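Treating backbone geometry as a discrete language has practical consequences that deserve illustration. Part of our work consisted of pairing the sequence of a single chain with a tokenised description of its backbone. What the numbers capture is local backbone geometry rather than side-chain detail. For completeness, the protein is quoted in full, as a sequence line and a line of structure tokens:
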Amino acid sequence: MRKIGILLLFFVVLLSSNPLLAQRGKGANKNKVKGHQIAFKIDGAQDSIIYLAIHYREKLMLRDSARNDGRNAFLFKGDEPYQEGLYTLVSQDRRPYLNFIIDGSQEFTYFIDTVGDVRNFNVKNSPQNEEMLRFQRKTVYAQMQIKEYQEMINKYKETDEDSLEFYNQKVRDVNNEMEQFITELIDKNPTFLFSKLQKSYRQIEVPDPPVRADGTIDSNYQAAYYRTHYWDNFDLTDNRFIYLPSLERAMNEYFKQILWLHEPDTINHYVDMVIQKTEGDSVMYRYFVERLSYIFETSKIIGHDAVFVHIANENQLKGKCYWIDEELLGRYKRRVKGLEPTLIGKIAPEIIMPDTSFTTDFNQWHSSYNMKKPYVILWFYDPACHTCKTESEHLRAVYDSLEAIGQRNFDVYAIGSDSDTERLKKYIKEKNYPWLNVGGNSANIDYIAAFNIIGNPTMFIFDNKTRKIILNKRIEMSAIPIFLEQHEKIEKMKQERMEKQ
């Protein structure tokens, strides 16, 4: 046997490159495991080598390999224990042979074949994998029953209602029996990693909303209950879940579907709730903090930068992330400092600059606060930038079309960043944009720093009444009217909700 140092095509990254794999938190088996000795006897195998891979997020990561001893026996043996989790035994031609658990004792033997019929499989010295194999056999049998009954349902669905109901009931009986089997499996061995995996797949039962004294119900009760109790079937103090497929599925569903389009304050509440559940396991805590930081920092959804800032402020910048060195901590500080002033809901800094006269008389400069329409678009551009030119024309098209029908509800305060004032003046004169154009080398503030501008073009929109930023990233110009319309609807709904309270 030898350790693998190359990457197979369907494996994304070597296990040894993942820092989490070198750590053991509270969830790891407390009894010291001495090495590993796992044997597989594969009837009919043509492989000269097989591979061992662990489940990590949506990937299989290569862990080890073993050679055929000439009798279709393959031995994985070493002085250090494997990371506990769900593993897949993979053939030489990259076909999966078997899913199994490594948890606790790592000395056992599995007898399988190349056909993949679990009814012919056996395992010795691994009570947990015996339970998993019993589950797999039960599942195969249930699937065979369902297939048979489904054929009868298709046969009678147009001709015999009694027979149709009979076989529909048969299907329900099989599903109920399988559900009961899983319940008993979990209750019998609650500490087994496989039991925890099965429990994590169970749906949360949401109760009916309570009836208020006036006879009405809270229409948001069930959704809020589901968000709050979503993780009840996960042991988030057990870092072995990092190597189970149910965790990745749940993270994607919860954060990228259930919470994805909620307002930042709502997302922050539930992010804090989930992270707090992981604090009993340092490895799990690190995994969630790093993963959620990345998800929301790189998201294209408006407002998600506020979630990233919140996570960083509550974790990385509070000194709770023991693994962060000074250099990385400094990067977090600079990133948060740059984003925080212009998050959605923050007051837009006032910009006061001269127009194309570039006068030095401050009294003749123009303020971004001194506009007439309900909303103000701050448009930062460079006249030498091709994208800036193209997007400016798109903005003009939206501006002119709304103006023509009397529905323009925004002004544009355009800031040209060219330090060559004569060139900027010539460009603006040639383009003849219908909005206020300012620029030059003088302003009341360092607007590049104030708005964290790292490239052009950049766009912000703020409410001209409250001065609050409602958009802090560039969107398609054609989407501006729709965005403003949706913003007004949301604000109206918020106001109505507050009045009811």
